[in-house]
Design goal:
Blueprint (H helix, E strand, L loop, with lengths): L1 H23 L21 E4 L4 E4 L4 E6 L2 E5 L17 E3 L8 H7 L29 H17 L1
Antiparallel strand pairs: 1-2, 1-5, 2-3, 3-4
Length: 156
């Protein structure tokens, strides 16, 4: 009987652990995405800016562009892109490792897609999920909502 109870507890725990890991595997990085990124994506690896043939790596907050025969990674765009407005740019989400290594494929496909000014950007979104980003203009409202939720939990 003890063995049966032990087996039941062991199986129940393993199911709970698997469920927990399955929930953890859901990727989200809304809080890391730049304010000029388009809404509708809970997770983004890279953005591709076809107008300037440049990538943006969300995890490291770096632009990746081709210069002098090499792909360069920097926190800011080079001077040659001075005046380029990322807030009004065509932005394509690419979730694959090192997409710049397949730049010819992206260049051939994406310049013809007209997604520029009709894209809503994170900065202008009123959805609560985007307010988690510390750079969002309404982030303080999200913080207050979180405080109120914690207070309400303690009242129960």
């Amino acid at each position: 009987m003890k063995k049966l109870i032990f087996l039941f507890v062991l199986l129940t725990n393993s199911i709970l652990i698997e469920t927990t890991f399955a929930q953890v595997k859901i990727k989200e990085n809304i809080e890391s995405q730049p304010m000029w990124g388009p809404v509708g994506h809970n997770y983004v690896d890279y953005y591709y800016l076809p107008d300037i043939e440049t990538y943006y790596y969300v995890k490291k907050h770096k632009f990746i562009y081709y210069e002098g025969g090499f792909w360069i990674s920097r926190y800011a765009l080079p001077e040659r892109f001075e005046g380029f407005d990322v807030y009004n740019a065509k932005v394509i989400v690419i979730n694959e490792p090192r997409p710049y290594l397949r730049h010819k494929d992206h260049w051939a496909i994406y310049p013809w897609i007209d997604e520029g000014n009709n894209q809503q950007i994170i900065r202008d979104s009123h959805e609560i999920k985007y307010m988690i980003n510390k750079n969002h203009p309404r982030h303080s409202e999200w913080v207050e909502l979180q405080r109120n939720e914690r207070r309400n939990r303690w009242k129960l």
